[in-house]
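Hi Y.,

Following your request, here is the sequence exactly as I used it, all 79 residues.
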Amino acid sequence: MKNLEKYNNAFVQVFGAKVEDLNDSYGKETVEEWDSVHQLGLIAELEEAFDIMFDPEDIMDMTSYAKGKDLLAKYDVAL
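Below is the corresponding structure, written out as tokens. Let me know if you'd prefer a different format.
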């Protein structure tokens, strides 16, 4: 599975999103289900999928699809 597929799959698993709905505007401000519980679930999915451990400040910054891509780049995960 490619990294982008793993990334998208995390959103599908946590939010029940459709892959075609995932874009840079998908986030805390536009997704009704996005709350702290779902945000932590997303972090857990991403940490497992990419074998990384996010810093606490990065966990707080994970507020959108676009921001998640930036955070993964910080951990040398290319999408």
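The radius of gyration is 11 Å.

Thanks again,
Q.
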